[in-house]
Amino acid sequence: MSVTSGSRFIHAEWALLPDGWRQANLFEVDSSGCILSVGSSLNKASDAQLDVVIPGMINVHSHAFQRRLVGRTQRFSKPNDDFWSWRTQMYAEVDGLTPQDQRVGALELYREMVANGYTTVCEFQYAHGAVSRDNAEIPALMADSLIGASKEAGIRQLLLPVLYQQAGIGEQPPTKDQRSFVLDTRVYLGLMDHLFETYGSEASVSIGYAPHSLRAVGYDALSDLIDHRQDNSPDSPLHIHVSEQVREVNECILGTGKRPIEWLYQNFSPNSSWVFIHSTHASRDELNMIIKSGATVGLCPSTEGDLGDGAFPLAEFIQSKGTFGIGTDSNVIVSPVDELRFIDYQARIRARKRNAFAFDGLIGSGTRLYQKALEGGRKASGQPVGRLESGSFFDLVELTTDHPLTADRSPDEVLNAYVYSGGKDVIKSVWMGGKPVG
Ligand SMILES: [Zn+2]
Questions:
Q1: What is the pLDDT of residue 416?
Q2: From ligand 1's centre to the CA of 240, what distance in Å?
Q3: How many Å lie between the centroid of ligand 1 and the Cα of residue 303?
Q4: Do 8-55+387-436 and 57-381 fold alike per CATH?
Q5: What is the fold, at CATH topology level, of the domain defined by 57-381?
Q6: DSSP state of 292
Q7: 269, burial (CB in 10 Å: exposed 0-12, middle 13-18, buried 19+)
Q8: pLDDT digits 0-9 by tens, 106-142
Q9: Comparing C-alpha atoms, which of 56, 57, 65, 48 is closest to residue 13?
Q10: What span, in angstroms and rounded, lies between the C-alpha atoms of 432 and 119?
């Protein structure tokens, strides 16, 4: 049945809407994959019938090429093995990476993301393959390879080409190992112009800005990037790694007299379109700056755990009305529920309590955590995703009730079973832009 030309009507027995669970839903979806209306399906025909549906998760932080490191970095390499020793192994992996390698690896990875319930990925792309930092030809091909892979896999992408220029605060020259990340500011901004022009009108692709970190970008280059964004795409997301490591915070204090987030607020006034990746070692005052400005924190629990980064104070952050999204970062794990479970258990262990967040008891802890991560993911992606409501993309995950973990349960219990005990085994289908993927 298609009453409005080009529209489809899709029934969902249960759906997690922005204001909670609702039974017997009829979604009207237009030809571009956007939801036109959400009404009752009682006594109405439909083009497709779904079981329990939830918005697809947004992965706010991925480096596709780092999936190549899986299984290869878990051997002790030196006393005090840590983020910095892992980074040396990562540098070796990216050296010589071609656009073709990037495409093959990203396609495999993005298919895995979709199978696990991600429907949008924010790809923080710094594997530019840039042996010549004066020419954007190879970086453009590297970017194209990621976009091509996301289209083929059926996942929406925010591509974040990265500006990376130095080895540490104080304009330390990049090392030989870092050469494939490095672009001159002029070349980087030319690459951004090219990508906006090429992909600006596509529904499944958007482009944002990503100064790598204060370690890798100095004041002048960051100013130029921010001016370019202001002139060309002021609302596009801006993502930056920040305060992942204590050493990084200390170097920033030594070089600037300020902590990294504090320095950014003093110099650039970040707003709600900024995304601070990690923020693991942010001070209480810095977290308050983030919350006050409406910016989002991008947490990557599995990678932060794998690298021994430290623990982010999520329970306190949520209680203070902070917004967070989840990312797979190094892609050591590619599952939203693994990320949520990990961060929830971290909070429970710290607090020695179950359901450790300040929840109201009306819905399950897993549902609330999932909703919170959607909210941050929506802001971080800059796209109308993460909500099943009129005007948003019909990007969703259908959970089955025909599985021992989910049978004979309320929809809320089905989602909690998915978050705490399930995985892709309880996913029945994944939809992106109004169509099933795969
Ligand atoms: Zn990262």
A1: 96
A2: 9
A3: 9
A4: no
A5: TIM Barrel (3.20.20)
A6: H
A7: exposed
A8: 999 999 999 999 999 999 999 998 666 667 889 999 9
A9: 48
A10: 6
CA–CA gap between residue 213 and residue 236 (Å, rounded):
18
Beta carbons of 56 and 370 less than 8 angstroms apart: no
Domain spanning 8-55+387-436, CATH architecture: Roll (2.30)
Using CA of residue 313, residue 314, residue 319, residue 321, what is the dihedral sign?
Answer: positive
Show me where the domains of the chain are located: 8-55+387-436, 57-381
Please say if the pLDDT value at position 255 is more than 50: yes
Query: Rounded to whole angstroms, what are the CA distances from 31 to 4, 95, 357, 395, 434?
Result: 10, 42, 40, 13, 8
Q: Is the pTM above the cut of 0.85? A: yes
Residue 3 has pLDDT above 70, yes or no: no
Ligand 1 center to residue 248 CA distance, Å? Answer: 14
Are 156 and 163 spatial neighbours (Cβ–Cβ below 8 Å)? no
Gap from CA of 58 to ligand 1 centroid (Å) = 15
Catalytic residue numbers, as ranges: 278, 329
Q: Which of 350, 360, 355, 387 is nearest to 371 (CA)?
A: 387
